[in-house]
Specification:
Elements: E1 6-11, H1 14-25, E2 28-29, H2 39-46, E3 63-65, E4 73-78, E5 91-93, H3 103-119, E6 123-130, E7 135-141, E8 147-150
Parallel strand pairs: 1-4, 5-8
Antiparallel strand pairs: 2-3, 3-4, 6-7, 7-8
């Protein structure tokens, strides 16, 4: 049996995170399947009861996909409770080129991505600039406070 991986991120505003993470990952909003005009219409055709769908759910995409088909689908699941503690799992956006690239080059690449993501709504939490360890990374939060790193 084949297994696929889907990453699920709990959130208050799926559309906001779809926009942010599509920009961050180079993904695209996932269109509804089977010629349906919305995901809500698709879910209704599948028999999902209306009372199980929050107001507005599925009217716009709540998931993103890798346009090349290589990365996992990411679904932004609307939940009622806010995020209150540090993530136990986080994403590393690896843009620096690894240790094969000089530290200055990695730092430049990371900084460029961080600038792009802060314009899209991310917040910088801390810079991990450790030249003695040949390491440069930045810890950020997405628009809902989920931590991730750009390395």
């Amino acid at each position: 049996m084949e297994m696929t991986l889907q990453l699920v991120i709990d959130c208050a505003d799926p559309q906001r995170l779809v926009s942010f993470w599509a920009e961050a990952l180079g993904y695209v909003p996932e269109p509804p399947p089977g010629g349906h005009s919305t995901w809500r219409e698709y879910w209704a055709d599948m028999g999902v009861p209306e009372e199980e769908l929050p107001a507005g759910a599925g009217e716009t995409p709540e998931s993103i996909i890798d346009p090349l088909g290589q990365g996992p689908r990411v679904w932004f699941q609307q939940v009622p409770e806010p995020k209150v503690t540090k993530n136990r799992v986080h994403l590393d956006l690896k843009v620096g080129g690894g240790r094969e690239a000089p530290l200055a080059v990695r730092a430049q690449r990371v900084t460029a991505m961080v600038e792009r993501l802060t314009k899209a709504g991310a917040t910088v939490l801390r810079i991990m600039d450790e030249p003695d360890m040949d390491h440069y990374a930045v810890v950020l939060q997405d628009p809902e406070g989920n931590e991730f790193c750009v390395v």
